[in-house]
Design goal:
Number of helices: 4
Distance between the termini: 30 Å
Number of strands: 14
Order of helices and strands: HEEEEEHEEHEHEEEEEE
Helix content: 10-25%
Largest sheet: 12 strands, antiparallel
Number of domains: 1
Structural class: mainly beta
Length: about 300
């Protein structure tokens, strides 16, 4: 699938999701969620708000073995996007563009195709997030530590055959909902007048499926005992977790703000790997159980 087609699909689906989610949020706000403390929060839902932003999305995974170090890191060739967004009556639309003059490193890191969707429902007392991503094409991010003699001046080891699918949902209750606004931070249709924060509690459910045509572990890896010498080409795992944390918006001279949040939790799940000869191995695990594991990191960075 070509990048322009993927981009069009992203814009259309995210726009449709934002309309549906925001309409639901408005109904709930007016009917059962009440009004915020006007000394801390002011609403501008009836006015058009616009923003410029840059964003970077990446979905990495790491093969870790407690008995053999270092770990093996796989990364997509992520892109820096520049975009413009607008919100009116709770309806938000963001359009991001990939500029070739910024992202011109395919010869070094390889080419990655991706489809990345996220939908947020930000209400007074609750926040929900739904996400899905598909990435095709990875490279080994630390070959100087894992493959003897590799020279990264030319390029990094590229695995165009590796693809990943990630999907999940999370939700949180905002305790100090009268004074702290997530909408002010993320869609800017509210104004956080004074510094405020809130404890959060909730949970998440997600699934990850990573697969390749051949083994994830290179034949010339530094230690043949890595992962006990197991050659596997697919890993699938699901996790359900209970989470909690804290978020805070800092207001500087009434007009400048930044929001920080810290979340943690404990979860259980099930993982399965498929070896290159077709055998499968299952394992039940805790979120902190990682003797030999594939760890996934799905992150985004946005600056407005």
């Amino acid at each position: 699938m070509k990048s322009i087609n993927i981009y069009i699909i992203i814009v259309i689906l995210v726009w449709m999701n934002s309309i549906s989610s925001s309409l639901k949020g408005q109904v709930l706000d007016k009917s059962i969620l009440g009004h915020p403390d006007s000394n801390y929060i002011e609403s501008f839902a009836d006015q058009l708000t616009m923003r410029l932003y840059t964003s970077r999305k990446f979905t990495n995974f790491t093969l870790s073995d407690d008995e053999v170090k270092p770990s093996l890191e796989y990364r997509p060739n992520d892109r820096l996007n520049l975009g413009i967004g607008a919100t009116y009556y709770g309806l938000s639309l963001n359009i991001g563009l990939n500029f070739p003059f910024v992202n011109n490193d395919d010869s070094l890191f390889g080419q990655t195709s991706y489809l990345d969707l996220q939908s947020h429902l930000l209400m007074r007392k609750f926040t929900f997030e739904l996400w899905f991503s598909y990435y095709q094409g990875y490279y080994i991010g630390n070959p100087q530590k894992t493959i003897p003699g590799w020279d990264i001046a030319d390029n990094y080891p590229q695995r165009g055959d590796i693809n990943s699918i990630v999907g999940g949902v999370s939700g949180y209750y905002i305790f100090n909902y009268n004074k702290f606004s997530y909408r002010a931070a993320f869609i800017q249709d509210e104004w956080q007048k004074k510094s405020a924060g809130s404890f959060l509690v909730g949970g998440a459910l997600y699934a990850v499926d990573v697969q390749a045509d051949s083994s994830f572990i290179p034949y010339d890896i530094y230690d043949t005992l890595f992962f006990a010498g197991t050659d596997f080409k697919r890993s699938f795992f699901t996790t359900i977790s209970a989470n909690g944390g804290y978020a805070h918006s800092f207001i500087i001279k009434k007009k400048v703000f930044f929001t920080l949040s810290l979340l943690g939790g404990i979860g259980v799940g099930n993982s399965k790997i498929e070896t290159t000869d077709g055998n499968q191995k299952n394992k039940h695990h805790r979120q902190d159980d990682n003797e030999r594991e594939l760890h996934f990191q799905d992150c985004s960075w946005v600056q407005q």
